[in-house]
Design a protein that fits this description.
The protein is α+β, with helices and mostly antiparallel strands. It has 14 helices and 11 strands. 41% of the residues lie in helices and 17% in strands. It is globular. InterPro entries: PDZ_sf (IPR036034).
Length: 336
């Protein structure tokens, strides 16, 4: 399936410096790409699950996609040009690719991929377990999210006016707590325009996105209510004004190994810190029975509340805890 959108549009962007409050602007002409939807990618689907398709005919799953994806194909036909314009408006980045190939498959190991752009119409499948992506606004938001990820990649091309800003910005590192969250922020802004605020909100609050936006806790706390994207204040401007030592940069600073664990849907493993729970720190008993923060997971609540390794915890709400168990119970009472 091939769709051609020959229109051009203007976006405001410029060569931005990290931490620069007022980025220079210039008009950049962007050509909307020619879109090809491939919903018969037999080799791609088979290659993703080599252990599945010796027993299950891959043609059956591809046939299912062709029979099922008509509403999503119509959405692309009807809305792709508007999505590209909105992506540029809210990102401050010009789309630079002349063509875009979208693969619609039945299953994928994650909610999708931006490069290549892959949408699992049937859902996420890992091993023998699969989870459907609800049709309608949830699936459309997934498509917009992958297009938002792809838009951020446009800004990282060496000849892009935004290359200097984006390639050097801490928050553009490809981790679930950083670039993935920025892409989702952009996707929500675009979805508000394309799908409407009500449908976007319901999709955002769906169980699917609560599970699969892996940086959700940080997203809700630092981005969702604070970073309001608009044509006058697109994502590039927010990034230009976010200094390198900001709180958001600090709390999203995780190691590559930790990022891989988060991407796999698991908490980072910190020696001495329980792998479950909200607070994510351990204490040791110091002199005078003082409780001293020993190890801390900087992706969880304790770190974001200001705790650091070596801190001495004397009281909680005026009361002195006698053990780590009592300390955690007292803190959770205050949070709840």
């Amino acid at each position: 399936m091939r769709f051609s959108f020959p229109a051009v549009f203007l976006v405001t962007c410029g060569a931005l410096a990290f931490g620069q409050a007022e980025p220079p602007t210039s008009q950049v002409v962007s050509t909307l790409p020619t879109i090809t939807v491939n919903d018969q990618a037999v080799s791609l689907q088979a290659g993703l699950y080599p252990n599945l398709y010796p027993t299950t005919p891959v043609a059956d799953d591809i046939g299912w996609v062709v029979r099922t994806d008509s509403s999503l194909v119509r959405f692309v036909q009807r809305s792709a040009d508007s999505i590209f314009v909105a992506l540029s408006d809210y990102s401050g980045i010009a789309w630079r690719e002349e063509s875009l190939l979208m693969y619609f498959v039945r299953y994928y190991p994650s909610p999708g991929s931006a490069d290549p752009l892959i949408i699992p119409v049937g859902g996420v499948r890992v091993g023998a377990l699969s989870e459907a992506i609800p049709a309608g606004a949830v699936l459309k938001l997934e498509l917009i999210y992958q297009m938002a990820q792809r838009m951020l990649l446009q800004g990282l091309l060496p000849d892009a006016p935004t290359y200097s800003l984006l390639s050097n910005h801490e928050l553009m590192q490809p981790t679930p707590l950083r670039r993935d969250n920025l892409a989702f922020l952009l996707a929500l802004a675009v979805s508000n325009r394309i799908l409407g605020p009500d449908s976007t909100y319901l999709a955002y609050q769906s169980p699917f996105w609560k599970r699969h936006l892996l940086g959700r806790e940080i997203f809700d706390q630092y981005l969702y209510h604070d970073w309001k994207l608009s044509q006058d204040r697109p994502l590039t401007r927010w990034l230009a004004e976010e200094v390198a030592d900001s709180k958001l940069v600090e709390v999203t600073d995780i190691t590559p190994d930790q990022a891989q664990l988060v991407s796999a849907g698991r908490r980072p493993v910190i020696e001495g810190v329980p792998s479950t729970g909200r607070l994510g720190f351990s204490v040791r008993i110091g002199s005078g029975s003082q409780l001293i923060v020993d190890n801390i997971d900087n992706s969880r609540t304790g770190y974001r509340c200001g705790l650091r390794a070596g801190d001495v915890i004397r009281t909680v709400d005026g009361k002195k805890p006698g053990s780590q168990k009592q300390l955690i119970e007292m803190i959770l009472d205050q949070i709840d």
